[in-house]
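About this split. The held-out portion is used to measure sequence recovery: a designer receives only the structure tokens and must propose an amino acid at every position. Recovery is the fraction of positions where the proposal matches the reference. Here is one held-out target exactly as it appears in the evaluation file.
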């Protein structure tokens, strides 16, 4: 009896190629094209299995295999999440990664989406158990090979430095390199001497940079083998600091934490160097700030103009450490007159925490997102029932675990003058809901920068400021109940009075109204803003049942969202059952 052959299921094959350095990519038939041609021929030989090559090119040229932070690899992982890929094909195992831990993450990700991984030169396929065994063995040796190579390069550079020669890197101003030997370039060396002399006299990096600008002095410039000109930039205060702190100008070379004598000719005499280091040390002692190990919103915070925001910390004369997230100025911002925006770091982080707690406590919202991921039945009910526990855990877990949760769940945070917008990854929300709270919460690095399904949290608030006057302090609770604070009571009455002035004098400006209350414009605006406090917060102030940290000064300078539930969380009030997500 004749039986028709069953049709073979189609397998969409994505070919991934990588080359560590850019050298050679300009050739007509480079390494990436060679890898692709070999992989393409292998895919064609497997047509009987239903293999079809995808037209998309995933080529990472000049990208190291030490990390997963590669543009085309992220593109490939995003396409896998969208269900566009069935098989990932590479020429050799180390083309996709050289790190065992990263590869385990990738294989786990592939298995989650039912994707096979094939390395054609090692002749194995993760579709069977033997292929997975050989894969782990080969990857272990690939990582060993990479570590041995790193050790060789480190040893080579150490030997070169110990012999007094230049091991490589950006050539410092005042020298040129020839066969690992530094030779003085006299015009640049004179600029270096001028910077040292003026720094000793002025004791100010910015003042020295201004003098260099007035005299037309520029940084070092050089021409590459391809004929491109680099450098020749103005000398800024940062460049002055780097020159002053570089021991190469007294004939020494840095090797780890040591200073080794070099064979090159020094530019600065020892006495001038030591005097400059004394002044530099005083600058460091006066401005040194304790580093924040848990910079919560690093690499995900942006302002409303798309400029990234970085944390800056400084120490006052009384030892208090202050921190702000400040937007990095761009050429576009300078041309359009948009100054760098800032927000107090601890206040913004508290607002993000309160927003996430509110989000996880909303069981109906969590269920809707899990349904979008295709979860239903018992899985949906189990995960959704953990939403309250997940919200409470956010308020209690350690800083390290909390940072991993935030950087996993949130893909991006943007601040404008009146809103906070946070993009939530639903897949990471599911991971956090599944976490049992035991051990350290692990951040999934493979999911950085991409997510197929997201949700936008939009919170009305006025956190961002272009000046440093407004603050948003959050203090803990703990005051004895039933003891009204007369200063807070007076503040509530002032807020009502300010509102009545606005209602009765709509034609008057804020300056005229502030004069009637005998306060500054800024204080009048802050007093007026207190009319938007939640009614139960006002009641607690009148009854004296508010948290201990709620003082007149702190509530007056606080930058509060318009959401009443978030106001309660930020000011230390207990959440209202049935109304604040509980």
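Reference sequence for scoring:
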């Amino acid at each position: 009896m004749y039986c028709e052959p069953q049709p073979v299921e189609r397998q969409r094959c994505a070919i991934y190629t990588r080359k560590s350095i850019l050298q050679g990519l300009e050739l007509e038939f480079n390494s990436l094209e060679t890898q692709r041609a070999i992989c393409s021929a292998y895919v064609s030989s497997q047509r009987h299995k239903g293999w079809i090559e995808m037209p998309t090119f995933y080529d990472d040229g000049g990208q190291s295999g030490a990390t997963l932070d590669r543009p085309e690899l992220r593109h490939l992982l995003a396409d896998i999440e969208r269900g566009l890929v069935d098989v990932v094909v590479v020429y050799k195992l180390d083309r996709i990664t050289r790190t065992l831990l990263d590869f385990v993450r990738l294989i786990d990700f592939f298995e989650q989406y039912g994707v096979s991984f094939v390395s054609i030169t090692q002749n194995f396929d993760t579709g069977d158990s033997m292929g997975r065994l050989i894969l782990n063995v080969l990857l272990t040796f690939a990582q060993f090979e990479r570590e041995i190579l790193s050790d060789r390069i480190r040893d080579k550079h150490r030997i070169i430095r110990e012999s007094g020669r230049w091991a490589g890197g950006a050539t410092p101003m005042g020298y040129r390199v020839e066969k690992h030997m530094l030779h003085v370039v006299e015009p640049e060396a004179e600029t270096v001497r001028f910077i040292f002399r003026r720094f000793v006299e002025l004791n100010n990096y910015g003042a020295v940079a201004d003098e260099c600008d007035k005299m037309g002095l520029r940084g070092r410039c050089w021409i590459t083998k391809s004929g491109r000109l680099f450098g020749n930039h103005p000398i800024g205060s940062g460049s002055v600091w780097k020159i002053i702190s570089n021991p190469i100008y007294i004939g020494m070379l840095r090797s780890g934490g040591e200073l080794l004598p070099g064979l090159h000719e020094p530019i600065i005499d020892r006495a001038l160097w030591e005097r400059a280091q004394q002044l530099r040390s005083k600058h460091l002692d006066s401005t040194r700030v304790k580093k924040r190990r848990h910079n919560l919103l690093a690499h995900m915070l942006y302002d409303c103009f798309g400029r990234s925001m970085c944390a800056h910390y400084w120490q006052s004369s009384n030892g208090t450490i202050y921190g702000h997230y400040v937007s990095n100025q761009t050429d576009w911002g300078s041309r359009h007159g948009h100054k760098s925006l800032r927000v107090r770091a601890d206040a913004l982080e508290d607002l993000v925490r309160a927003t996430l707690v509110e989000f996880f406590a909303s069981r109906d919202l969590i269920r809707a997102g899990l349904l979008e991921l295709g979860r239903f039945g018992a899985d949906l009910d189990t995960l959704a029932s953990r939403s309250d526990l997940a919200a409470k855990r956010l308020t209690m877990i350690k800083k390290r675990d909390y940072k991993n949760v935030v950087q996993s769940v949130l893909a991006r945070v943007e601040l404008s003058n009146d809103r906070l917008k946070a993009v939530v990854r639903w897949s990471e929300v599911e991971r956090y809901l599944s976490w049992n709270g035991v051990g350290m919460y692990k951040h999934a690095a493979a999911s950085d920068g991409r997510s197929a399904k997201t949700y936008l949290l939009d919170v009305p608030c006025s956190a961002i400021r272009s000046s440093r006057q407004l603050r948003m302090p959050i203090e803990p609770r703990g005051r004895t109940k039933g003891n009204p604070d007369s200063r807070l009571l007076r503040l509530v009455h002032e807020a009502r009075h300010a509102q009545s002035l606005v209602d009765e004098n709509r034609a008057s400006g804020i300056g005229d109204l502030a004069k009637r209350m005998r306060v500054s414009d800024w204080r009048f605006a802050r007093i007026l803003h207190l009319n938007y406090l939640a009614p139960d917060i006002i009641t607690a102030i009148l009854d004296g049942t508010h948290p201990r940290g709620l003082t007149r000064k702190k509530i007056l300078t606080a930058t509060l969202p318009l959401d009443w539930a978030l106001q309660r969380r930020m000011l230390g009030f207990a959440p209202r059952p049935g109304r604040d997500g509980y």
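Annotator remark: Residues 466-480 have pLDDT under 50 and may be disordered.
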